[in-house]
Every structure is written in C-alpha cells, then in structure tokens.
Amino acid sequence: MVKIKIGLEIHGYIKTDSTKKLFCNCNISHEEEPNTNICPVCTAQPGSKPMAPNKEAIDKIVAIGLMLGCKINQKMLFQRKHYSWPDLPTGYQKTISGSFAEPVGVNGNFLDIGITDVHLEEDPARWDPVSGCVDYNRSGFPLVEIVTDPDFTSIDQLRDWLKNLVTTLSYIDAIDKEAGIKSDVNVSIEPKYQRVEVKNVNSYSSIVSSAEYEVQRQLELVNKGLDVKQETRTWDDESQTTKFMRSKENAQDYMFIPDPDLPIIKISTQEIEKIAKSLPEKPFEKKERFVKSLKIEEDDASVISSNIYLAETFEEAIKNKVEPKLAVRWVRRELLRVANFQKKEIEDLPITKNNLIDIMTLIQEKKITEKVGQKIIEELSVNTFDVKTYVKDNKLEAVSDSSALENFCKEAISENPKAIEDFKSGKESALNFLLGQVMRKSRGQAVPNDVIPMLKKLLK
Ligand SMILES: [Zn+2]
C-alpha cells in the first residue's frame, strides 16, 4: 500500500434560528428569486458599512469548534481577503482567516484527525459566467470553514470520518444540510509528498471520490518515474476526474489586512463555558455507551446514534423503564419503517416521543400486542392522538381474558378439521396456521405466546 496524506478544508452554511446574514439583516434563503434578499450592505453600495456580526453565528461557530475539540480563541478579528472576481462586490471577503487572523478554534482533534482551525467567513454572491448575471441573495451568508491537518492515511478512514463529522454536526444542527458544502481536498503521496490541492469539490461523496482519483493519478505518475508537481487542480463531477488549474508559482496573494469597519469580537470564558455545557454527548460516545452499558448490538447502536432524534427517543424510553431490546425494536425498526413508508424524515413525522414510549410501555405490560402497536404507529404517522385513550376507545387491549381466548381457539379448531388432522400426523406448521386464525379472530389482540399453549392443551 502506498503511503498517502490527505487534508481537508470544508465550507458549510451555518444554520441559525434567526436566518439572518452575517453583516446585515437580510434573510437567508436558498430558494428565492435572484436578488430579492439584498440590501446596500450585502451588495456593497458606496458608503455602506457592515453591521456587527450576527451573534448567533458566532455562538454556533464556537459550538462547532468545541465539538471538534478545539481551543477557542477569546478574541476574533475579521480580515479582508482581497481578490477580484464578479461575485465579490467589495473586492474582498470578510473572513477570520489569513495572515493576521486568530481563527475561532484551533488545535482540535476529532476522531484522531487534527483540526488545524475552525473559522467564520462570509459567502460571496453567485456569478453565472454564461449570462454574466450576479445573484446577491447569498452574498453575506455565514460560512464555517473547517481545516484539518493532513492526517488521513487511507480513503476508508476519510469516508468514515466524514460520516462521523456530518452526524456530529447534525447533533447541534450546525450546518444547513440542504445548502450543500464547498470543499478543497489536499492530497499527497510518498516519496516526495508534493501537495496537490483539489478545488470545487461540492459534496461529501465527491470529497471521497476526488481523493481516491487523485491518489491513483499521482501513483501512476510515480510508477512511471515522473514527478508529482505541486499544483492546484479542479474536480469535475461529470467525468469524476481532477483537471489542472494552476501551478504553485501562480499562487494568489490575497493581501490580507484587518478589517477597519468591524470591531474585535471578544468572548468571555463564562460564555464559552455556557456553550460547552449546552452541547450534547457526541454520537460515537453515545454508541459506545449503548453497546457497553445497555448491551445492545453494535449495528443497532450505530443506527440509533446516527440521528439525534432517534438517540433521544431511545434514551427517553430507557429512562421510562422500557427494556432496551424492546426500545431498539421500536425506535430503530418500527419508527424507521413508517418514516420510509411515508417517505418522510423521522423528525417530520407527527409521532411524538411520548407516543412511542406509551406504545412500548403498553406492549411491555402486555396490555396491547406488538401487532396492535404496529397498527397504532402507522395511524400515528398521519394523525395525532393520545395513545392510551385511543387504545381504550377502539377496544384494542390485548385479549388476556383466558375464556375469550379459549373461545377463539375452540372456534379455530372446529372450523379447520384438516389442520387438526395434519397436526395429529406430526405437521408442526398446522399449529402456526391455527395461530393465524386465532390472531385474525381476535383482530391481532391475542398474545401469540398465550395462544400456542392454549391450542396445544385443547388439541390433546
Ligand atoms: Zn443585506
């Protein structure tokens, strides 16, 4: 195996409740008509000045830094990163990166990959090179940039790590999933480790594909006895290849200067502690705890911890004394089953945590059967109601009355002489057939574990 080094620079759109841009009060929306969410600030009209940065975006980025194990700097200074491009009306981008900047978070570590820094910057506008039109709607959106050390040594490790990163950031609802990401992927291989930077990588899966392609390309050069050149390339999604963009000698000088229009942002130790306290346990920590202390299967623990809603519902059920195995079955299988059926995200189903806990508790106390529980959860995926009242009103309680159960069994036996014959001649499957008949007669409200012994007793 060839030795490789990969590092990432990932930009994502920060999600805030206020949905305001970073330096003005324009709305953040990724779907509106071009140039409808704009003002003099985000279009850089002469004389306009940025407002103080959106506090919520600052808090979010501190939370991201903490989740990735970074040390948080208490002073943040915005820089002007100069470049001339039609998407940038000021001629510079406001960013907390560059020569004089102290990024928000530094020296982090997330699952054995060093985090060089985590910082905040504004998004430029969108320029269409074909029509020449510029849409300023997204100009000034708050972006987070996560820069890793070149610590990835295999493609599999990269793929796993990205999956964990996405889940972890989703736990704090940090990044707008719908809006996509922009990423640079830096790849180098032995013996000389010449760094090739791949730009224009716009999804998590493309990060993996572009790294895989680039390792292969460099390996072929080395095998032919050629040198890998230090250069910038661009990822082409269509052909799934990287293409030459510019050599190192042409690297841009951004002429960073501190932005005189913006104040230094100070954040106190207490504020950082407050944010730290509000953060959830990380997904992989949850998974480990589920496996170790609740003794559930690793695969189940993975699925449940991959979504904070599932994880919280599961933990709430355990707190309410639902047995872990039953909780796994309902949180992982049943909830996902109805979500798939309705083609919805779990979070968008009208089913509440309490609904699910009520169903699980009723099953555990043998007050309803699993079958009835399944019907209730299907109904709950389109309607809201109180589970306990619903069970009472619709007379869905499990048939625990043994005389009622005996009657169902007797009926099933007298109506199916063929099955009785089969059973007596040793066919065990006949018993399952009779069980099916009893379940149908009881509308799913008989408990199979009670029915089988009852049938056997009557057949003797
Ligand atoms: Zn604006």
The amount of beta strand, in percent, is 15-25%
Q: What structural class do helix, strand and pairing data support?
A: alpha+beta
Overall, the morphology is elongated
Radius of gyration: 30 Å
**Low-confidence runs (pLDDT<50, min 5 residues)?**
none
Extended strand count: 16
Mind describing the biggest β-sheet?
9 strands, mixed
For the record, give the distance between the C-alpha atoms at the N and C termini, rounded to a whole number: 68 Å
Ligand inventory: zinc ion
Q: State mean pLDDT (0 to 100 scale).
A: 92
Helicity, as a percent range = 40-55%
Instruction: Supply the number of helical segments.
Output: 15
Kindly report the spatial arrangement of strands forming the biggest sheet: 2-6-7-10-1-11-12-13-14
Topology readout:
Blueprint: E1 4-13, H1 55-67, E2 71-72, E3 75-76, E4 79-82, E5 92-95, E6 105-110, E7 113-122, E8 126-127, E9 134-135, E10 142-148, H2 155-171, E11 181-189, E12 196-201, H3 204-223, E13 231-236, E14 241-247, E15 257-258, E16 265-266, H4 269-278, H5 283-294, H6 298-305, H7 308-319, H8 324-342, H9 353-364, H10 370-380, H11 387-393, H12 402-415, H13 417-424, H14 429-441, H15 448-459
Parallel strand pairs: 12-13
Antiparallel strand pairs: 1-10, 1-11, 2-6, 3-16, 4-5, 4-15, 6-7, 7-10, 8-9, 11-12, 13-14
Helix pairs in contact: 2-3, 5-6, 7-8, 9-10, 12-14, 12-15, 13-14, 14-15
